From TrEMBL:
Keyword Mitochondrion: no
GO cellular component, one term: mitotic spindle
Domain of life: Eukaryota
Taxonomic path: Eukaryota, Viridiplantae, Streptophyta, Embryophyta, Tracheophyta
Record-level GO BP terms: mitotic spindle assembly; spindle elongation
Protein name in UniProt: Uncharacterized protein
């Protein structure tokens, strides 16, 4: 809590007590409070100029939410890295399998060509 926030709370409590005790008549010796009450607009203006006062509970809740979000971002980043690694591994495996399939297709085509040539030049041989 800022100094201005504390000052504002103290002044509000004091004025509330004084007005409840005295009604509209402020007892002698409490005259300074009326001058302090007239300072409240200045306190509000200073608070607006310096920054917005956030109650401690709201501030704590905001801090907790920010920590939760930071933790969630950290977990999601770790998960993203794991998923990215899996994707990279699968892409490498896919490329490898694609290359293997291409090699096998070429071997099959070469084998077919050999069988075609043999059947053309040696028609009497039996195929196994």
């Amino acid at each position: 809590m800022t100094f201005l926030g504390e000052l504002e709370e103290v002044l509000e409590v004091i004025f509330g007590i004084c007005l409840n005790i005295a009604g509209d008549d402020i007892p002698e010796g409490v005259g300074e409070l009326t001058s302090q009450k007239s300072l409240l607009p200045e306190v509000y203006a200073a608070r607006e100029k310096v920054g917005v006062y956030i109650p401690k509970d709201d501030y704590q809740q905001e801090e907790n939410e920010q920590k939760d979000m930071a933790d969630q971002i950290e977990r999601m980043t770790a998960s993203l890295e794991v998923n990215q690694k899996q994707i990279n591994d699968l892409q490498e495996k896919y490329s490898s399998e694609l290359q293997h399939s291409d090699d096998l297709s070429k071997k099959l085509e070469a084998t077919r060509n050999v069988w075609t040539i043999q059947a053309t030049y040696y028609p009497q041989q039996k195929k196994i």
